[in-house]
């Protein structure tokens, strides 16, 4: 079942151009879904709609299999979120900040220790938040979002501004939540490299349109399909001919000859043949086709 499903979700701010155009988001229950896109792609707008912070205009939104508008309270009771920087009281301790929320939402005091531990802040609960690093503040914000034991966590760029260590700590925290409590996590980011090691599913949005949606493996498969072996030789014509004779379908680009990725033993054989026929081989390399470049290609096309 999908924890979040949108159907043809569209939105525009008053007087502006469409910001979301027919988004069909499918976030399976129990997954960690990376919602990727460059600045201004429409990520925050989508997340705000899902939380009822913006009023839906067109399309359908189902959370936990239920239509959002008609089941708003029930859905939000099961959802925790971090959208934009939360307002923390910097002159109060972490525990006092949590206590204010606990008082507002009426949770038992023991939840405070539980979420401090979960967020890795167990030993700094009595420290003033003003003395916290940005990473610790982000984790405290997540601790607040976890107070009511949500089944779904919606996070808008929680790693923004964090140093590499802070990013790793955030990743470990989210992984642990997902593993231990089966919390479904929807996390937005504009950098694939930041969430690639965390997510199980990916949606790529640009200019309000979903360009790709699937598992991380689907995206990696796409990467393999697009990968190529590049021959840089002194005689592109002969290289083309030799590759064709070997049943391959080479293409010429910028004086280089490209073929789809093949086994290393095939490349070794072709190299021998090229040398035997007197063709100078300068370089044989794999085409740059990491996940980040697929993301950039999708967004730029
Ligand atoms: N309150 C608003 N009024 C009018 N236009 C807005 C408003 N908020 C966002 N937009 C516009 O909507 C588009 C999508 O913005 P959104 O914040 O959803 O993108 P994003 O993918 O979250 O980007 P970022 O990573 O920069 O936050 C942008 O063109 C933005 O300028």
Automatic annotation (TrEMBL):
Determine if ATP-binding is one of this entry's keywords: yes
Output the Gene3D superfamilies linked to this UniProt entry. Answer: P-loop containing nucleotide triphosphate hydrolases
Recorded GO MF terms: ATP binding; ATP hydrolysis activity
- Read off the SMART domains from this record: AAA
Per UniProt, residues of the ABC transporter domain are 4-232
Keyword annotations for this protein, in alphabetical order, are: ATP-binding, Nucleotide-binding, Transport
Under the heading InterPro entries, the entry gives: AAA+_ATPase, ABC_transporter-like_ATP-bd, ABC_transporter-like_CS, P-loop_NTPase
Lineage, top-rank taxon, reads Bacteria
Instruction: Provide the family line.
Output: Belongs to the ABC transporter superfamily.
Q: What is this protein called?
A: ABC transporter ATP-binding protein
Name the source organism.
Taibaiella soli
